[in-house]
Here is the input.
Amino acid sequence: MDAVDVVIIGAGITGVGIAQSAQAAGYRVLILEKDGIGEKTSANSSKLIHGGLRYLETGQLSLVRQSLAQRKALLTLAPTLVKPVPFYIPIYQGSKRGPLAIRAGLSLYAMLSEFDTLGQFKSVDAKEWPSLGLKLKGLRAVFRYWDAQTDDHALTLAVAKSAKGLGAAIETNVDIKRIAHNAEGCILAYQHQQQTKQIFAKCVINATGPWVNQTLNLVSPAISKVNIELVQGSHLVLDIPPPRGILYLESIYDKRVVFVIPWHGKTMVGTTETPIDTIGDAGVTQAETDYLLGIFGYYFPHLADSNQLDRKIVASYCGIRVLPKLSGDTFDLPRETLMSSQDSHPHLLTIYGGKLTTFRHTAEEVVTWISAQLGARPIKADINSLPLD
Here is the structure.
């Protein structure tokens, strides 16, 4: 039977990020992926590399600081894939967040970025407002700040390419049948290319995103699971010329924030936060479509075409977030990544959640866990200096 140090289940951005970091740290890594690299949740995000300005409202300062640090790193390591982009926040009469609150939030955002040049913000002069295409009636102020944008699938492929270049193996279109945990590690049985295979791993990382607890059902002896909430985030792509930057809009229906984003010469609107019971329930709903078009039409009435915006939809998609099962509105649930390892199964680590922006930080924490299990190895490369392209 073949053996490796680490098997990572899942080749989304979290899985390939862990593979790159672990292989660079000197461990022998194999990724097993049910579909293709980065084809599921990691290709269905809002395409943003950002600190998460709205997370300041729920007091998640450490997550924002961590995200801003990773934004800075990715802008350096992947300049062709991660690019700075201006964000505009319009404030109207009756907006829940007034100019003072927004200015205070942006000031804290800049401070948490350690006053990086991208942390600068300004109040946009009124003579520039018409160029944003927004409705002007009731508009009190507009602020501009900076974050970054990426092609999430392309970024995932670039990280996977780096991991393979370091020596990691990746097998796709894999059907895992069983994960047998024992005192030495785990034996995984799976189907690949019409062959039945087995592999021994000293450590297994479960990075299967929304399928995380389904993956744990394959473990023997049985392992307990963290209760999670599956939350769908939907996006619409409209055949409308893109805005000059990303617009950060307050929902007219609730306290959420919705982005209007330039995307390949068109306009993308997202995202929603809709709890779903199972992965099979995922799919853009009519209610979500009405929600996003309603917000877009409110801020861009001249583009609404007499309530014919639905005819402008050329694509739609949704991703699934994994959040802890807690009481309260999904808007308020914490977004930090949770890593779970149990004394009964010491060779298995499960990743709950995960953000596109912070995948490198998650990978660093996982490699720290691997090192505690297996001991340090001669380092192959410094991932903080490896370019991504």
